[in-house]
Amino acid sequence: MKKEQIIQGPCTIKVLEGEARILGIEIQKNDLLTIPSDKTYTLVYDENTRLETDCKKLLDNLNLRWDEIVEEIINTVGVVLLLGNVDSGKTYLTNLFTNLATSYLKIIDADVGQSTLFLPTFIAELKPMRKTLNLEELGYDTLEFFGDITPSTNPRLHVQKILRLYETTPKERLTVIDTDGWTVGLNSMLHKFELIYTIDPDYIIVFDQKIKDSLPENYRNKAILLKSVNLHKSRSERKANRIAKYERYFKEAKNIKTLSENLLGKQISNILYCAWGEYIQLSDEEPCTDYYIPLNLLKGALLGIIENKKVIGAALLDDLKENEITILSRVNKFTGLVLGYISLNDKFEERRIRFRKCKS
């Protein structure tokens, strides 16, 4: 009989007798595994296994069976959609799939608020090449830029971006789609229903009975309810996690100058631009035509970088002067920039860019 306990680092685990595993990675006799600070994992082992560890034990005597359920799914392959609230375990389960089906798996990280493979506001796809205890180490293969940290801004666009990555990237025997934690309210469920009908998954893994009960009737037989461990991060912890991602990414970025029309369209004057037939005004002056964006929020805007119609990275708008803008980016060759709804201040804290419709 398997035993399960949830442990937290920093610590080490050594197997004295028998074997154990974390996230599908086996720890054999005399192996020593180091767990980083604040990382939390489920340790699975046999009754006759003897361990030497200084890990903090958060929960013991569990019967989650996540490993068994994942192994059953990967033996039949198909498309797996993960649905659950914030911090319910979707990303952890994605990592477990990665380690147990590395050679024939594609994962899509569609959680734009707590992104794993890339930065918040982006959707990322990856064909993993190795096992890991931390998905963030593996990077990404393909990106889409959504532009916000919640799908609620434009639910349909969010579904379309996921579908594009699903359809345009190489097919694999098993695809796992890790979704966002927006599950409260009618609009959130309509968003999930559209995603279900669009992708038509073979399995829907849920972490909440209410979500399972609310699924379209013809998909409930595809739903698998997993036990949740309820180890939730606070809102401030989730915010700190996003800030840390921004800091790490842009720490290695460089200043690059380019024409302002690559972002805002054709310049009409020092405060007025025309993009896709509509005017964008950067100063709150009358008369105002079409849209007004406050210049103080535009500086620091998080951007998607385009090369040959593909999203290849991220940038920050550092400065705008006349017909020239300065961006902070790791990418120095691109053909276009895409503006989203999020701006960062000098501490990498998020601010919302509000596109205000001018008075008619």
TrEMBL record:
| Main EC class the enzyme belongs to | transferase
* Gene3D superfamilies the UniProt entry points to: P-loop containing nucleotide triphosphate hydrolases (3.40.50.300)
Q: Which GO terms describe its biological process?
A: RNA processing
Domain named Clp1 P-loop: residues = 84-251
Task: Please give the Pfam families that the UniProt record associates with this protein.
Answer: CLP1_P
Give the residue spans that cross the bilayer.
Answer: none
> What cofactor is this protein dependent on?
a divalent metal cation
**Which parts of the chain are coiled coil?**
none
Instruction: State the reactions this protein catalyses.
Output: a 5'-end dephospho-ribonucleoside-RNA + ATP = a 5'-end 5'-phospho-ribonucleoside-RNA + ADP + H(+); a 5'-end dephospho-2'-deoxyribonucleoside-DNA + ATP = a 5'-end 5'-phospho-2'-deoxyribonucleoside-DNA + ADP + H(+)
Q: What is its EC number?
A: 2.7.1.78
Q: Which UniProt keywords apply?
A: ATP-binding, Kinase, Nucleotide-binding, Transferase
Q: Identify a single GO molecular function assigned to this protein.
A: polynucleotide 5'-hydroxyl-kinase activity
- Its function? Polynucleotide kinase that can phosphorylate the 5'-hydroxyl groups of both single-stranded RNA (ssRNA) and single-stranded DNA (ssDNA). Exhibits a strong preference for ssRNA.
PANTHER family under this entry? CLEAVAGE/POLYADENYLATION FACTOR IA SUBUNIT CLP1P (PTHR12755), POLYNUCLEOTIDE 5'-HYDROXYL-KINASE NOL9 (PTHR12755:SF3)
The protein in question is named polynucleotide 5'-hydroxyl-kinase
What is the source species? Saccharolobus solfataricus (strain ATCC 35092 / DSM 1617 / JCM 11322 / P2) (Sulfolobus solfataricus)
